[in-house]
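Exam prep: given the inputs below (a chain plus pyridoxal-5'-phosphate), describe the expected output before reading on.
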Amino acid sequence: MTAFPSRPGVPRTTLTTHFPPSPLESWDEIGHRLGVRLLVKRDDLLPFPLAGNKVRKLTRELAARAVTTGDVLITSGGVDSNHCRTAALLGARLGIDVDLVLHSRAGNAAQDRLSVRVARALGAAVHVVSAAEMPDCIDALHKLRIDSGKTVHVVPGGCHTKAGVEAYADAAGELLDQIGTAPDAVVLASGTGATQAGLVAGLARAGCRTRVIGISVARPADRGCAAVREALAWSSDDTQTPIEFLDSFVDGGYGCASDATRDTVRRAWRLGLPLDSTYTGKAFRGLTELTLTEAIPRGATVVFWHTGGLMNQLVE
Ligand SMILES: Cc1ncc(COP(=O)(O)O)c(C=O)c1O
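Solution:
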């Protein structure tokens, strides 16, 4: 194919932090089986392929930093990180050079992962190292890029930032506009906790008493709760709302999945609701068990916040 002509100084596209609302769908049959009114907020369908909740967080972060064509973005995560893939995608769209520092125990074999190939196809420079080597690798890249005269942005892994929290506080408002009245509970996959903190902040700001139930994908409850509380304090002075961060569905750690979680994922796909076993499968299993044990009462209106992550399922 003929190369696209390059026009220095002309941005490829404008960074937008405002998208059409992600769909809010009514899942009546599953809801009926669980004894609740079940709605699914489809952030997996935000208008960036395979990006999920990281789209809201990262676009807001990049806007807050006023990144511009020609800047450099350095960020980090696990080898299949959704956040890193989203960074590569936004970098390609905006003409920003992206360095991804990815950790993997698989050494060079990780270079063949589908997610790494996708990031490279998007033009990102991918550096696969061990977890212990990450800080030094990030520092070295930072120095190298600054020395080349570029404006460099180092964004924390998972976009665990104030802007990320605020993006989800606004998303809570989006949900309320769609649903009309406050739901009884929102259930989501929780990792670093910024998404959960944003939803807590946004719902409390709107005066709702909705429970926001984070299903941990990796962290023990005490650490996860503390992280959500810390992230909440970045954009709210609310110290009263109880933080519900449940670690009963972690399945042995990040990226591990029990038979029960795999079964949940398999059944959901068969019903036309694609989930993955790293994030949303654990969260949906949590939702199922909480309704069946009536920790979420019968008749409640429950929103399952689908945070994306389908690429994890595709690389399995
Ligand atoms: C698909 C998906 N869901 C949920 C989460 C958790 O988001 P947070 O780190 O804001 O808790 C992540 C973060 O990596 C994710 O990729």
